[in-house]
Write a structure and sequence with these properties.
Helices cover 57% and strands 0% of the residues. It has helices at 2-10, 21-30, 38-51, 61-66, 68-78, 85-88, 93-100, 103-108, 110-114. The longest helix is centred in the middle third of the chain and has 14 residues, at 38-51. This is Sulfotransferase.
Length: 127
């Protein structure tokens, strides 16, 4: 669904056309997309994360949604920048990073509401 909505957001508004959901679903299942076969892409990174866990950090959207604090701390550790005890406190940096990087906050920023990419596509298409 998100790929279908995103693709339709990128179509010129003045044409009034949309990509049929069934067609988008069929292409996705066959691995036909702008970025290549989705599952091959994900599986490649997953395998690389198992082979080189010190170089490839693998995180799913579902993991981040379920436990954002824990996943952010894992990411910081992976980058070699673990949070201090003060930063992990309720008023500390971890919660502030989660707030600043939330979809709710990012989607409301002026740059994402009123600006466009060099391609002419609106930044808000990504939210």
């Amino acid at each position: 669904m998100s790929l279908w909505q995103f693709t339709n957001n990128l179509l010129p508004k003045e044409t009034g056309t949309t990509s049929p959901l069934e067609e988008t679903f069929d292409k996705f299942c066959r691995g036909v997309s702008m970025y290549g076969p989705f599952w091959d892409h994900v599986l490649g990174y997953y395998k690389a994360s198992l082979e080189m866990p010190h170089k490839v950090f693998f995180l799913t959207y579902e993991e981040m949604k379920e436990k954002p604090r824990e996943q952010l701390k894992r990411w910081a550790d992976f980058l070699g920048c673990p949070f201090s005890e003060d930063e992990e406190e309720v008023d500390g940096g971890v919660n502030e990073i989660l707030r600043l990087s939330s979809f709710d906050n990012l989607s409301k920023l002026d740059v994402n509401q009123n600006r466009k990419l060099s391609t002419g596509h609106e930044n808000k298409s990504f939210f």
